[in-house]
Structure formats: C-alpha cells, structure tokens
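question for whoever is on the cluster today: can someone run the full assembly for these? three chains, 704 residues total. i dont have access anymore since they changed the login thing
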Amino acid sequence: MTKKEWPLWEVFIRGQHGLNHRHVGSLHAPDAEMAINHARDVYTRRKEGVSIWVVPSRDITASSPSEKGPLFDPAESKTYRHPTFFDIPDEVGKM
Amino acid sequence: MYAQLVKSDALKSREDMSPEERAFQDRVDNGEKIEPKEWMPEGYRKTLIRQIGQHAHSEIVGQLPEGNWITRAPTLERKAILLAKVQDEAGHGLYLYSAAETLGVSRDELLEKLHSGNMKYSSIFNYPTLNWADMGAVGWLVDGAAIMNQVPLQRTSYGPYSRAMIRICKEESFHQRQGYSIMMKMAFGTPEQKEMAQDALNRFWYPALMMFGPSDKDSVHSAQSMAWKIKMNTNDELRQKFVNETVPQAEYLGLTVPDENLAWNEDKQGYDFSEPDWSEFFEVIKGNGPCNRERLGARVKAWEDGAWFRDGLNAYADKAAARRQAASVAAE
Amino acid sequence: MSAPEAATNSATASLPDDTFVSDASLRPQFFEWLCRMGDNALILGHRTSEWCGHGPVLEEDIALANTALDLIGHTQMWLGLAGEVEGEGRDADKLTYLRDAMKFRNLLLVELPKGDMAVTIMREFLFDAYHHLMLSWLAENSKSPRVAEIAAKTLKEVSYHLDRASDLVVRLGDGSAESHRRMQEAMDLLWPYCGEMFAGDEIDAAMSDAGIAPNLDDLQTGWDAAVRDLFDEATLKMPDQGGFAHKGGKQGRHTEHLGFILAEMQFLQRAYPGATW
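^ ran it for u. tokens below:
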C-alpha cells in the first residue's frame, strides 16, 4: 500500500458576480479537477459561490515575513495616494 | 472542551525570555495575529498542533454519536437537519486540520496519531446516544458547551486557527438551536417523549460539565497558553458560564437538572453546582469510557477501508499527469 | 437545508395548474408511479447517508452527505405530490414512515447494502445515468406540470451527482490494480439489478400513454450508450449483455434488505404512534 497523502490545495471562491475571488481555506485532493469538486462540496455547502479556483499549496510563493518592513513600510509614507490627503473646499461639492 | 488537557509549557517570565520571545509576546499582547511562516516559540507551535489537532479529532469522532441516529431520524426534515449537522462537523474537522497543517504537520500524520492513541479527542464523544432525545441533548448541551469555548477562540493569536474558528462559529449557529428545538418537541410531547428528554439530560449533564476539563486556575500550563492567547478563559470560568446559561433553559423545558446541590448564589450572581466525578473523567480519557473502543475502532476502520480508494485516485492522477506530459512532448 | 425549504416553499408558493393531480381515472397508477420516483430517492438517500462519519477521506464523507441530502429533498417533493394525488391525507412523512415493505416501490438496485466505496459509487453511477435521463425527459416533456416542475428542480442536483459518480468510476476503474478489481466486481454484482430500471409494466405504460412519463425502452438506448462509453474510458468490461435481471421492487416484491432498512428508519414512528417530533 502506498503511503502517499493527497496533496494540499488552496481554495479561492468568488462569492458573487463582480467580486474578487477570496481565499476561503484548503483541502486535499489527488488532482486539480477533484480539488474543484471537493471545493464545491466542502466550501459551498451554503451556496457561497459562483466560481472556484484551486491552486496547489506548494505552488504558492509568499513574501517572507522578515521582509514585511521593507515591502510594506514605504507605502505608509505615500499618504498622497489616499483621497483624504487632499482638502477640497466644501463649496466645490462632492468629489 | 474539544481540546481538554492540552499539554503546554510552563509559563515563562519576561526576564527568562530571549529577545525574539519577548518581541513575539509583545505582538501577541498587542492583539496582532501570528501567521504561518513567522517566527514563533517552538512551545507555541507544539502546543497549537496538540490543541488544534485534538479539536479536529473531536469534530470527526464527534460525527459518530449523532451519526448513530441519522438512519433512525423520525421525520424526513429531522433526518436532513441531522445529516447536515453531522456533515458540518466533518467540514469543521477539515478546516481545523488545515489550520494545523500550516504549522508543519500533515493531516495524515495527525490521523495516524489519533488512530494509534497518541492524540486524544474530547471525552464527551465516548458516551453513547441511546434515545432520540440524545440528538437534542447533544446539540443543546454539547454544542452549547463547545460554543462557550469557540466564540472567544475566534480572537486567538494564531491567524489560521482564528479564521477557522470564525467560519466554524458562523456555521454552528444553527446546531445548538436545532438541538434545543428537538428538546422542546420531546419535553412538551407525550409522557414517553418527556421521559426520554429527562433521561438524556440525566446522562449528558455531567459529561457536558467535564468537557471544560478539570479546574485549571492554578495550572502553570494553562497560564502559558493564556499568555499566548491560544486559551482565552479558565476552565472554571467557562463551566460557570455554561451552567448559568443552561439551567434556565432546562427550567423552561420543565426538566430537572440532576444535581441536588444546584442553587442560585446571589453573591456570585451564578449557580452553585456539584462537580462532576473527575475519577470518571480520567477513566474516560484513559480509554475506559462506555464507547472509546467503538469510536476509535470506527475511525480506524473507515481510514483503513478507505486506503484503496485514496490510493486508486492517486494512481489515476499520476497516470493522467503522465499522459498529459507524453501528449505535450509529442506535440513539440 | 435548501431541500426542505424548497419543498415547503413549493407547497405554499403558487403551483402550476395540473389536471392530472385530480384526475380520478388515473389516480392509482399516477400514485404508484410517484411512489416509485420518491422511494428510489428515499432508499438510495438512506443508503448513502450510512456513510456519514465513515467515509474514506473527509472530502468524500462531505460529498456523500451532500448527495444524501439532495435525495432526501427529492423524496419530500415526490412523495409529497404522491400524497396529494392519493388524496387520503398522507404526506411525505406518512408515506415514508408508515408503509410496510410490500408497499414500497423502489428498484431493488437502490436497497442493496452500501458495500464498499466501489459498490456505492458504481451503484450511484448506474442509477444516476438512468435518473438523469428520466428527469431530463420529464422536465422537458411531461404533460403534468407538477411532475415537470419537480423534475426540473431535481435535475440540477442529479446532473452533479452523475458528473461526480462518472468521474469517480473512470478514476477508480483506471486507477490502481486494486481499485480496478473492486470496480469490476461491483459492476458484476450490480449488473443483474439494472434491467429492472427499464422493465416496463402496466403502470409505466399508463404513464407513458398519458404523456406524464417516458417510454422506458426509449431511455434504455441512451443509458446503454452512456454506460458503454464510460466503461471504455474506465477500462472496465461490460458484463454479459442481455443477461438475467432481478425484478419486483417496482411492484413491491423486495429483497430481504428492505425490511431491515424500514425497521431502522421507521422505528420511532412505529414505537410511538401519534407523537410529533
């Protein structure tokens, strides 16, 4: 008897038309097609989705936690990227 | 709880911590979530694997006592509700195993440890379900006790565990209510039904109190888990809260809680109640509960009988991948 | 919980006019035929639900429970309509819990023990292939609007059951040596119970003449082709064509297994008559 475990998959579901796929969890399946079927059975039991993506967990490349500072801190100084940075007089109306 | 008697490290004082440990503790204290590949003390990782694993095992072993009545449910609607609920428990086991897997242990390894008796599951599932009112009592008392613990755990420090608990709590909101709805039908039904309801309460009351585990107010192990925010309340706090909420619900049903010492205590704004028989609890944990053998046996059998099925699907996936590979080579 | 809700909603929402439902001349045959539809779903759902907590892997445990839940929902719709047609105050629960074995009209195929996963999956495929053809015909062609409506609702779920079961038959048939052997053995065991699906009797003839249900011979051609194609893909051998077929379930002559299913399923209703649950 082989002792091979079914690989792990990450599951992403589009909850409603027009929204992004969102990570909902993971599951085991022997291949991609079965991972899709399992995702339907496991993660949409309450009619939670209109589209499913599955990705082998081992194929996900993640940013390293120790680089969190260098990767994300610079953006904090660019507050001009956010709309509230700019004062627009009330008389101008909604913008 | 679903994770009782989880071994943890002794509480480390701040002075004894390494700089890394101190920084980690600061993040936990600030309410930050710890995510999978971030640095964590080895004790934190190991304790979490034990706790989440035990919780996951409890979910899948917990399918069995209720699964026992699926084919005997008395109406089509009750059958569908019970089946959906027991199916949810399988789903919750799956979410929790996934959370544990982010800590570097595989689901099959955890199952191996369950099957060999090296990891435990909640003592409650070693009690039998003997009449239909037990389906009510399990939902009302067992899920009720579990919720006491799971709601605060949504705020636990480990991100994947917290997210699993959020999903589980959302799905479980109907479980306790469906249990109480069965209890109402039984308690307000025929005399025989009421007798079944009382019998179920009599049998499940103390085992439900045991779910919270023995008193741990002086335990250094619990203190460390609480400092790490993987345990949010003491066992005694949760047990008291459970009794306070459950007694009026039993009164509404016209049922008697099987405890002669049960009395409202105005000073503490809570009920005084009898402790369960802790020697019984330790016997059950050791393997001497009424159903330990059957429960673990059923899990092992399902796993072993399913080996050819899992292997067969692996074999097909390998063949299909090889065929795709050959086809793409031929096309080049 | 969508299935029971759907059943309740369909009872309260506006239902299509259906003269067949009150047609006294056709009543006994229509009732019988509806019981056949409902009892197949009920008994197969029962067998499938036996896996809950005992599946070979968590994902499959959950998938099997979904199938069983769908079938329980279908039972509520078909037997609910059967009760209406009969007009004697029996609802889906009364028909489920208070009929004895000889009044059950399911195929023998669906009452056989669940066996291993090979038997479970193979049976599901063989039945689904038939069920899917039946429901597709009913949804499109049935002259009874109520029947067509239930068929259309259940068809969506049964399409998924058929896809899932077909996929697993191929994978396990063309999987390991052991999974192949088990699938072939399952087929050899179940094959003699397939003929009953297409063995028409006077009830089937009456339903077909009234335009409510299809001629079973017409379905069989499609079923034979679907099964043969899938078996090729699954590298499984078709058993001897035109072999012996066990029959009788549709007329109430069952295997010994059904009595035990009912003893379990009906226990509470029988032991405590008149109680509500």
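summary bc i know u wont read the tokens: The domain at 26-271 of chain C is CATH 1.20.1260.10 (Ferritin). Residues 1-10 of chain C have pLDDT under 50 and may be disordered.
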